[in-house]
Amino acid sequence: MKPGGVVGVDAAGDLKVSAVPVATGRVDACFRDPLGKAHQVSWLAAAQDVVFEDCPVIRSFPVRYGRRVAPGWWWSSTSGRLVAYGSGVMRTQLMLLDRDPAVVALACRPVELVWREDGKVVSHAPQLMARLQAGSGLLLDCAGRIGSSARLAERARVVAAAAEAVGWGLDP
């Protein structure tokens, strides 16, 4: 991938790449501590100090009536507790991560990244977070059959740069 990362999807469904670098020092992390108190601190500091897998969900999934799969809970043998999911694709991803020996903890939307772009405040809460044996993390967004939207791909550019800045990974 070129420096700058993904910024959108063209008409053919291919990802477009931006040459503009992302200022990861200006990305904040919003999360709730285990007692439910909200915090907003620099992402670079939070990724090193906060145990996100112990944080509750920052934004819950809406119930959409008439859909085949509603939000629910997956019992994670890795984490030893229930982990929320918002779709069938996300539930499947949780199942796969739960069986991966490199994963030591799982969490659903424990953090929301916030930054400014073109004078507007933009935020994105990756759907899943996995803590790996090495201590690093993995942020995941679970796209369905249609794939990532242009809006999600735009935000993935910043989230990927923020994750990379702290030695984490992003699986869009």
Give structural notes.
The N terminus is likely disordered. With 172 residues, the chain is an alpha+beta fold. The two termini are 14 Å apart. It contains three helices and twelve strands, in the order E-E-E-E-H-E-E-H-E-E-E-E-E-H-E. The chain has a four-stranded antiparallel sheet with strand order 4-3-8-9. It has a four-stranded mixed sheet with strand order 7-10-11-12. The longest helix has 16 residues.
Quick structural summary:
By secondary structure, the chain is an alpha+beta fold.
* Unreliable stretches covering 5 or more consecutive residues: 1-20
Radius of gyration: 16 Å
Mean pLDDT: 82
How can the largest sheet be summarized?
Answer: 4 strands, antiparallel
Strand order within the widest beta sheet: 4-3-8-9
Q: β content, as a range?
A: 25-35%
Please give the number of β-strands. 12
Number of helices: 3
Query: What distance lies between the first and last C-alpha atoms, to the nearest angstrom?
Result: 14 Å
Compressed to H and E, one letter per element, the order equals EEEEHEEHEEEEEHE
Helix content: 10-25%
- What is the 3D shape? globular
- Give the structural class: alpha+beta
List the helices and strands and how they pair.
Blueprint (H helix, E strand, L loop, with lengths): L5 E4 L5 E3 L10 E5 L5 E5 H7 L22 E5 L4 E5 L2 H12 L3 E6 L3 E6 L2 E5 L3 E5 L4 E4 L9 H16 L3 E3 L1
Parallel strand pairs: 11-12
Antiparallel strand pairs: 1-2, 3-4, 3-8, 5-6, 7-10, 8-9, 10-11
